[in-house]
Structures are given as C-alpha cells and as structure tokens.
Amino acid sequence: MAIANCDDKNAKALQFIEDMTQNTDSVQKRVLAEILSQNAKTEYLKRFELNAATDRDTFKSKVPVVSYDDLKHDIQRIANGDRSPILCAHPISEFLTSSGTSAGERKLMPTIRQEMDRRQLLYSLLMPVMNQYVPDLDKGKALLFLFIKAETKTPSGLVARPVLTSLYKSDQFKNRPYDPFNVYTSPDEAILCPDSFQSMYTQMLCGLIMRHQVLRVGAVFASGLLRAIRFLQLNWAELAHDISTGTLNPKISDLAIKQRMTQILTPNPELADFIVKECSGENWDRIITRIWPNTKYLDVIVTGAMAQYIPTLDYYSGGLPKACTMYASSECYFGLNLNPICTPSDVSYTIMPNMGYFEFLPHEEDLSSSSSSSTLSRDSLDLADLELGKSYELIVTTYSGLCRYRVGDILQVTGFHNTAPHFSFVRRKNVLLSIDSDKTDEAELQNAVENASVLLREFKTSVAEYTSFADTKSIPGHYVIYWEHLSLFFL
C-alpha cells in the first residue's frame, strides 16, 4: 500500500494495517491473553479450570469448540436477567441477532459496549484502503441506502437487534466526527426512521437532489441496492413532483424527517424534468450512471448468495466496479478487503488479528458429525499457520465472551498480506439440500442457478431471487428451484 502518498490520517490507518499484518501471531497471542485475563473469573471459563492460564496450548486443551446450542442455556440466563459474569466480565449491553437460526429461533449474540469501539476502528480503515484505488472520494458524497430494522427486548430488558441497527443507533454513529471520505446524501433522520417506506423515500429523494455530488452508490447487500432501484421505478413520479414543487410527499409523516427536509428540499423544475425523462421510458439500462453520472463504483456485498445479483447490477450500472469492503457478522467483525476494486470472483478478505482470537479447522477434517456438539481440540490452526489454497472452518474467541465458537463459515486461503492470510468466502457450513445420500450445498446450488440463468439472457431477463426445497414425495426425489424473474426492460 502506498502509504507515502496519503495524508496523515490515511497514512496512520494504512500503517496500522501494516503493523497488524506484519505481526499477526504476536498480536493474536496478545489478544487471547487479554480476553482470558479479562474473563478469567467468569462462570464459563471457571468450568474448564484454566487457573488463570492465558497461553494457547492450555486454552485449546481445556476449552471445547462449541456451537450456539452449547451456549444457548447460558445466553438465555443472561436474556432472562442473570447479571452474574456468566460469559463475560463486562456487563452485556445488548444482544445482536444473527441471521442464522437455531431450532427455528433467532440466535442471540451477547455483546459489550467496548466492542462498538473495536468495530468503529475497523470501519475507519475502509476508506483509507479504498482511496488507494479510487482517488478523490473526499470530493463528493456517498448514496448509501442504510436502514434500521425492528428490535425487541429480552425479559431482562436488554435490547436484541441486528448488528447494523445497533451500529446506526449507537452514539458512535450519531455523533461521528466529520470525515470528508464518509459524507452521505442520506440524513441520519432518514436512516433512523423505523418506517421502511419513509426511510427509502427520503434517502432516494436526497440522492436525486444531490445527484451530481454522488461518487459511490450502494447498500450493505446487492439485494438492498436492487430494492432501491425497484423503488425508484415505482415512485419516480412522486419524487419528481416533490423536487419540482419543493414540497414533501404527505406520505412522509415522520416529524424528524419533515424538519430535516425543510433544509434540503427546494423547488427545482429542471431536475424534476430530467428525472421524468430518464425514468418514464422502458429502458433502464445504465440507469445508475445516467442519474448519478459521477459514480465511480458500487458499494455492495456480492459474495456468497449475493452473487446471483451481479448480472442485474451490471445492467443497471453499466458494469461499474462492485466493492466488497468488509467481512463481519453478529458474532465478530473480522476484517477487510485490501483490494476492494477487484472482480467479484476474486474478492478476498484479510482478517485483522486485533479483532478477536481466530482458529481454523481444516474443512476436510470436520470435528464431529453434529455441528451442535462441543468438542475438545488442540489440532486447530492459528491465523499465522494456514496454507495457500486450503479451506478452513472459522472459529472465534471474542472479548464479549464467545470462546472457541464455530461461526459456520467456510473460508479458503487465497494469498497473504505480510503474514496475514487473505480469505475468500466459500459458503456457510451445513447449508444444503439433501435427498437420501445426495447432498447439495449452498455453493453448488448457486453455481447451478448461475449456469442455468444464462439461458434467460436472450429473453432480456435475469434471476432476481430464488429459493429451493427437496421434494421427496415423488420417486425418485428431486430438487425444486423457484426463480423470480426480473425483466431488464421495465414495463
């Protein structure tokens, strides 16, 4: 990375990445020692009689590798109001809800307030890396469609919500210092509005008003950006009316949004006419670059199951680069993509060794036939000991109290930055269809859909969504795949 060509702030961020990745093993030793020292008196670690040991060998020989089901009872005790240090010495501040499920229920991942600062540190590294590949990102704004989702409270009163909702509602986000590389067209009032229609409408409206300032367009996932484009297809006439008259759609009733928009919305008939001209026709090819002509790239995740949306994104954007910048989950924030402007098939992430303690199980040597049974293992590999081309299952130990937790992601080593490996995301473990002895995993299903969808191109359509199930009512059994088609010409 060209640290010498950066301003002081970006140079400091890039140097931090270099320091962490040049000393991967020593950082990992320090992180594990900190976690074990912090949580030595917790009920969970006391069960395994570590006797204040903080070394890796003792930790691996005494503490088992576990899944969510192994921790579910302890997590439920915390959710029900037990304030004793069960998993973590620091008080649990909230639960982050995982997209995965256990026995049909959401997984509740405990977290602590201090973890938010660690996540913010990782976020602060993203734009310094991106600026090495896309210059002058401080000269405009980002149109990112960001939303909060519903949250609940556990019997103890602790909130349970998705990790991004936690981020957007945090003091760190709401009181973030000005950063010219991270200026959004969407006002916080719109991002924090719980009504999805009002939030999307306002964010799209602001994005249209500031269209010449937009340098990157995106959402967290590719599917989210396509939902935004579909929203524009359905609501462009009302949006254009608001811009023409300088008045806000009466469907927007959120008081915070209404007050904020009085500072942004003014009559602009010329812009309104442009939007009508671009959106009223049938051809939506390159609509992103037609409306936001200065867009340099799309900021979206297109790995894993999101890969199905790449052809449609290419249609709407004219093939703009798609930057997958970060690898994170509700259990832990892991790392970042040090080469963000690459083709989607080449996306790899570098796990930052300061984010948690990471172990890896060779994928071919699964610890057990059941992902819900705990297992002792000293045979896991450390972050600095992995081999190029090999696949591994990720295990994490966090400051928030997860110890040797099986995240469920299968990763493949694609290279190294200093001593830190790059990983491509292969698939989620145990996500598959099965009939008798035949098993089809997520990656194989995705490949099948991609190959078959090639046949749709001559009909000017693509796969917008798909789902599947194993039909065993007939003999022989077979897989049924449902496709939702998206016409590349909006009618």
Automatic annotation (TrEMBL):
Q: Domain GH3 C-terminal, which positions?
A: 444-485
Specify the superkingdom.
Answer: Eukaryota
Q: Name one Pfam family in it.
A: GH3_C
Q: Which UniProt keywords apply?
A: Ligase
Q: Which GO terms describe its cellular component?
A: cytoplasm
Show which residues constitute the signal peptide: none
Domain named GH3 middle: residues: 349-428
An example of a GO molecular function for this protein is: acid-amino acid ligase activity
InterPro entries linked to this entry: GH3, GH3_C, GH3_M
Family statement drawn from the similarity comment of this UniProt entry = Belongs to the IAA-amido conjugating enzyme family.
The entry's protein name is Indole-3-acetic acid-amido synthetase GH3.2
Organism per entry: Glycine soja (Wild soybean)
